[in-house]
Amino acid sequence: xxxxxxxxxxxxxxxxxxxxxxxxxxxxxxxxxxxxxxxxxxxxxxxxxxxxxxxxxxxxxxxxxxxxxxxxxxxxxxxxxxxxxxxxxxxxxxxxxxxxxxxxxxxxxxxxxxxxxxxxxxxxxxxxxxxxxxxxxxxxxxxxxxxxxxxxxxxxxxxxxxxxxxxxxxxxxxxxxxxxxxxxxxxxxxxxxxxxxxxxxxxxxxxxxxxxxxxxxxxxxxxxxxxxxxxxxxxxxxxxxxxxxxxxxxxxxxx
Length: 255
Hints:
With 255 residues, the chain is an alpha+beta fold. 61% of the residues lie in helices and 15% in strands. Helix 1 (2-38) packs antiparallel against helix 2, helix 2 packs antiparallel against helix 3 (60-72) and helix 4 runs antiparallel to helix 5 (94-106).
């Protein structure tokens, strides 16, 4: 038994060392990519950033830098993809938001209708402002505060403050419930709604998952679409206008 414990400890140490080596290598690659970007070797920097991503590094600044390298390499679709991924990790980063907005403005396909309405954009931005983690932390804090207020009310001997504490508890319960519901909706949406960015120069959407089927519309790189389902090498996508069609999966990448 003792030998088994020693072997387990040894493997844990080796695994930790291997992870440390991998992290150091990723940091080195990231530094090299940054230098290549500063030197104007944007395509080389892009490939180097992708190597870091391939090492399972998930970081908003890495994705942001990769998006910049893709943009400078004339890969607009990939740039928007990585800006979108960076925004998921850091939704209030001003640089990420500014570059994503700029890249979205110069793409060939421009969304129309409610997507361009400033009031709608404000409401969507407000809805997406807090990240799921931030909502979870807020909900936990409110629930803890509500529990503490309830305990204090039960132990308090000041009956004259009864109405005040009841009102405070009711308000806290309502706020906690609304926060929990909002968080549940956001998490459900993230788990059920799949979005992708068109990374090919253009893609033809068809009525069925077959290259011989009738073309419905053509979309270009950088367009954000919702993926309803997949079938073989095809994706059933839907635009913000509601128009849908099948495109080859190789023409788009899931955010």
